[in-house]
């Protein structure tokens, strides 16, 4: 089964991202920043981290809280140990994914379990609908081999982290936001098409080589926001050189966004409540694994 795309989306604009430091001093390219949250609803943030210099990542992300959204950590290369306030623990390694629903609150840490070599990957923040923001926390770790994957006739390798592609269901499905999250490896000269619901906001991020969407080139380290063109039914990417990218799409929530650091709610009152709960030690309850 293939995803037939007869009217592909074009590129609305290309984003370079911002160099930031997060956690205890980890160097990050923040690709999806706060000013883009409305345009790319339901996605709140995309961080791309990657370095072979241990000083860029070794300090990691000590214990910190979250409430009101989901985090999706995708490890391209490296070893990262996750721990949370309930004693849950997991190790993310090459190709692995951790999907965490913070819900009403979880406190966790993400610390490198290596002192040398490359650490590279992504963290995507996916908003929760208002009705689910105070649900019980949940998370699941997927080893690289556990993430569904397929190869097209043109030799394109695709990992399906969320949603579905060419008849292959991804590791995680979500009803309201209906996210699609693909990691796509194109050999030189290959093309790949993915059907997308017309209402979904969507973007690609190239992390190796360069791909073309229509007549627009999207170089490595760049995000292309895909136009919400009426009648468009998907996207087609082509690579003259061997290239890799992620494709992310989701159904917008069209709800108010109130954010204070690691808390994302719908109103300022809910943010104040989150801060108070954190200060009172009420935010780190057990997450269901």
From TrEMBL:
Binding site for Fe cation: 64, 66, 108, 110
Location of the Pirin N-terminal domain: 27-126
Keyword Chloroplast: no
Superkingdom of this protein's organism: Bacteria
GO MF assignments: metal ion binding
InterPro entries: Pirin, Pirin_C_dom, Pirin_N_dom, RmlC-like_jellyroll, RmlC_Cupin_sf
Cofactor binding note: Binds 1 Fe cation per subunit.
Pfam families on file: Pirin, Pirin_C
Family the entry assigns: Belongs to the pirin family.
PANTHER family the UniProt entry points to: PIRIN, PIRIN-RELATED
Protein name as it appears in the record: Pirin family protein
Organism: Duganella vulcania
């Amino acid at each position: 089964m293939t995803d037939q795309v007869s009217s592909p989306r074009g590129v609305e604009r290309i984003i370079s991202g911002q160099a930031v430091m997060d956690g205890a001093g980890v160097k990050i390219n923040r690709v999806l920043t706060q000013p883009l949250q409305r345009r790319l609803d339901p996605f709140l943030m995309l961080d791309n981290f990657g370095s072979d210099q241990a000083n860029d990542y070794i300090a990691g992300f000590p214990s910190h809280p979250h409430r009101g959204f989901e985090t999706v950590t995708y490890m391209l290369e490296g070893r990262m140990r996750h721990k949370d306030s309930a004693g849950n623990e997991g190790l993310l390694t090459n190709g692995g994914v951790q999907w965490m629903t913070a819900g009403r609150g979880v406190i966790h840490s993400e610390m490198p379990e290596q002192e040398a070599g490359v650490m590279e990957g992504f963290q995507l923040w996916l908003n929760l609908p208002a009705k689910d923001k105070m649900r019980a926390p949940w998370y699941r770790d997927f080893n690289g081999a556990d993430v569904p994957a397929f190869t097209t006739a043109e030799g394109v390798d695709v990992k399906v982290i969320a949603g579905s592609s060419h008849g292959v269901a991804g590791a995680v499905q979500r009803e309201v936001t209906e996210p699609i999250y693909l990691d796509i490896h194109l050999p030189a000269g290959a093309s790949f098409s993915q059907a997308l619901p017309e209402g979904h906001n969507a973007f690609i991020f190239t992390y190796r080589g360069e791909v073309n969407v229509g007549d627009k080139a999207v170089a490595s380290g760049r995000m292309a926001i895909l136009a919400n063109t009426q009648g468009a039914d998907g996207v087609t990417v082509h690579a003259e050189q061997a290239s890799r990218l992620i494709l992310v799409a989701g159904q917008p929530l069209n709800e108010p966004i109130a954010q204070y650091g690691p808390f994302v709610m719908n109103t300022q009152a809910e943010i104040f409540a989150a801060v108070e709960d954190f200060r009172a030690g009420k935010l780190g309850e057990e997450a269901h694994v």
